[in-house]
Design brief:
Blueprint lengths: L6 E5 L3 H12 L2 E5 L7 E6 L2 E6 L21 E4 L3 H10 L3 E8 L3 E7 L5 E7 L2
Parallel strand pairs: 1-4, 5-8
Antiparallel strand pairs: 2-3, 3-4, 6-7, 7-8
């Protein structure tokens, strides 16, 4: 059976803030606002990858801690053209990085903290 990646789905406190975060910082294209399971949501596209966003459903109890690392989802990885420039821009906008740009054998990488404790890895291939 053939499989391919379809989307990532994130739950956020503030839908408009999360739309703005991905659009303004990573060039995400807004597709539409739509409900997911009865909760307000939105669909974004980053270079062919779908990001579905939604706020919590009324019956959901959300936990809010950055001090624990959960099993399962860990981070979103985005390939960028210039990790150093983006690191400088995002730091200037008040975003924090747990790892500033660091060279690995194949990429420059950096890890940042987005809204609602979303960790994002920025990757720039070394040519």
């Amino acid at each position: 059976m053939a499989c391919r990646f379809h989307h990532i789905h994130l739950i956020c406190r503030d839908l408009d803030q999360m739309i703005d975060f991905f659009s303004e910082n990573f060039g995400a294209r807004f597709v539409e606002k739509r409900p997911f399971g009865g909760a307000d949501g939105a669909v974004l596209d980053i270079d062919g990858t779908t990001i579905n966003l939604r706020v919590p459903k009324e019956e959901e109890i959300m936990i809010d801690t950055a001090s624990e690392i959960p099993y399962g989802f860990h981070h979103i990885g985005l390939e960028v053209d210039d990790v150093h420039r983006l690191h400088q821009e995002l730091t200037g906008r008040g975003f924090s990085f747990s790892l500033p740009p660091k060279k690995t054998p194949s990429h420059w990488v950096a890890f940042m903290q987005g809204p609602d404790h979303i960790t994002i890895e920025l990757m720039q291939p070394i040519s």
